[in-house]
Amino acid sequence: MQVYRVADGEYLGEEPGCSIARDRGDGVTVDADDGPRIFIVEDDAGVAEALVDALGRLGFALCGIAENGEAALRLLPRARPDLVLIDLDLSSGLSGVEIAERLGDDLNAALIFLTSNSHAELAERALRAESAALLHKPFHLQVLKASIEMALFKHRAERQLSAANRALADKADELERSLALVQATLDATADGLLVVDRAGHLSANRQLLALWGIDPGAELRDDELRARLEAPLVDPAALTRDADEGASHLLFADDGRILERRCRRQRVGDLEVGCVFSFRDVTREFETHEALRILSTGLAHLSGEALLRELCHQLARLLDCDAAFVSTLPQGHAEGRLITLWVDGEERRPDAFAVAELPLEAILRDAVVVVDEGARARFPASRALAQLGAESCVFELLRDRAGRHIGLIGAVCRRPLAHPDRVAPILSLFAVLAKTNLLRAREAVTAEAVFEFSPDGLLIVRADGEIVAANSCAENLLGYARGELVGTSIDALVPDSHRDGHARRRAHFHGGTVARYLGSIDEPLKACRRDGDTIPVDIGLGPFSSADGAFVVVSLRDLRAHVRAAEERASLELQLRQLQKMEALGTLAGGIAHDFNNILGAIVANIELLRADLRETPAMERLEEVSAAADRATLLVRQILAFSRQQSPQRRVIVLAGVVREATTLLRATLPARIHLHLQIDDDPAILADATQIHQVLMNLGTNALHAIGDAHGEIVIRLQTTPIGRRTPRCAHDRYAELSVRDDGCGMDAATLDRIFDPFFTTKPTGEGSGLGLSVVHGIVIDHGGELAVDSAPGRGTTFTVLLPLAAEEPETAPVERHEPLPGDDSRVILIDDDPVLATVGEALLTRLGYQVRTFTDPCVALEALRAAPESCDLVLTDCNMPKLSGLDIARALRELRPELPLVLVSGHTGRSDEEIARAGIRYRLDKPYNLVSLNQTLAAARGVPERDPGEAT
Fold first, then answer.
1. H or E, element range at 498
2. Which of 290, 523, 693, 753 has the most CB within a 10 Å radius?
3. What is the number of alpha carbons within 13 Å of residue 819 lying toward its C-beta?
4. What does 434-448 look like in DSSP terms, one character per residue?
């Protein structure tokens, strides 16, 4: 890690030999309570440390550090800094400018971009950011201080100036809106307003001018306005003198209009500055007074169609019309039903004319239609108007609260209307009552349908417990016929254990008026069916009152399906916990295998060293047995590591026989002695597959076979062969397949089990003994590889699983032939880094045996310092992957910047990293633990680019 130091206010650069303990996550945050809060975004740990030290000397408070753009975007909004020191040239991910641009106004902090060699365009983008400054590396301590103080001052000044400008603009907008609002209010007021100030000046709004027939757009002087206002209706001087504030006066005009006048004196403190007079035309109010009296008193005792009949009678009389009617008008089409018709003071049959014969197109378009004369000429196609002899007419469309039309009310006259503008308001009053009546009738039908077809069982119960109504769902739920439920007591549906206190609880509930909901999925209530069974239910109680007394709507929701679902969910949660436990066990096994791999590495390396020393001696035979045992242990550890590794599948052309042999060896080690495992390989096919997943398929099928045999003695047969497919299916689209079968002589399965055998979490094992995922995973892997999975089983006949995998079109890669003699190292200089002292020692011995000059380090930081001090002092680096302080990937990244052409070999039995991550670190050569002289020499020769030579050429 690069470390920077600051001394005497001067930035000195990097200091070898120093290390800083840093969190390897996305960022480190530090709480700061006093002073300006400063946040650092810097991917170079040394520069970040230098900035922390410098800020501490300058007395500034640090509130956070981010090592990359993604961490900065996540941490900065939470840190809320006053200033951000941000590296303009971050090595990966987002640049400093992109971070600032993404945060935008959400950052609300001053910015100082740090740069050493950024190009002009990036620097120009940085300076365009609000409250931003640019500071070049290296920097002096006082320059840093001055830059921070200047940036903070500039940021505060910009914010204050922006706030002041916004406040000033808001005040100006508010004043302009107020003036506009005053004028708009005057013009929008329905009343005519006349303002008379103390000097006698007049001001009138548009409505007052309209009342006197004056052009509202005319600009009149005071004398002109006085001349146009007719006395004695309006005499400004007399009004000002005799005005009685708050009093209402009625003025009768020559044209029959009735005006209401009111006065309001205007004062500023105790000083009277003028008077405001309002004038309103109340002619229609007087004319509608009689209509209101009829609607409120004459029709109050009626309802239904009787109300509508009397409504039409009074409407025709009040409007002095010859006919009036009310009809329905369903939404979406022009068909309607004439409910009542009143003509010439008498009620007529509703079939006197069809609603469709009215001018519906105009009514549906305009909602209110008033024709004062010439009605038949305007609507010549209307047979209803012709039949009634209409000269004038008025119609209004009746709408519900959602705006949908539901009906129509209208009146027809055989002469022109005297005041058509006064007829429509009266009709609207009658329309309100007609609409309410139609809606009430429709809602009654809707309520009946909702009650009947509710998905819950509904009962209506009196206060004494008698059931007065039940819907069809209640019949099905409780097993009673509706006639059996109605008239019985609700107590009959309560289980015996709760029936004694139910009457008391029912009486207590009727004392309140709040709805209640009883029961839940976790603790459902019970209801008794006619057959005596009890079922889980959720109960809702809704009290209401009517003219017939107090009632309660009881809703019964069937919870049987919910209870079953809750039981299944609990079972699935138990299986999930088992799966998580198995995953943790796999992780633990991987960690143990990794440590054991290091032990094997020391054993294998020492065997290689002893093999040369003990050649042609009696101990050589024993040594070869130890070597064979170590090889078997190595294979076992590698298989465990492969199963515990969590990474994306890596498919390549593999020889299936070798994978099957390895998996069988591992499976045989897990089987008890009473189970015989036979392997039969009839062919050696090659497939395109992930070897680890094929291992997993065989292990899961073998484990399933073991559980099928149980505690009895049994046999498992694994067979591999190549088979042609007679016909192609959507999944089997190839001609030849590798057929892998696993057969056991266990208990077998019935048809019901076979139907669900591949369902996730389905298991026939007792609770806690299986996750139910093994065969589901097998099925997913096989299908994902383009194959087919079949099962043949019957109770007492055992089970055979057959896996078909398509053969690969390419030949598998040929493994290199192992050499039993090392190739020379040509005195090449190698640096070996391994934190395990034993592996470092035996690795050095093996490299020396191969003819390399070796320098060994157990501390990766010390090794990296040595390489930085003398980059040309070695020809190759051999490093372990998993080490404290620095990993092998960290070493590779540092060497890529220090000396890109230097070969590096990564040594590991289990990296814990993906292949993509290793490739991004620039690592091309890998050596698996444990390694011997041959694999070590071949890997190093490939890394050095040296062609392999015959062992006889070694010196």
1. helix 496-499
2. 693
3. 17
4. HHHHHHHHHHHHHHH
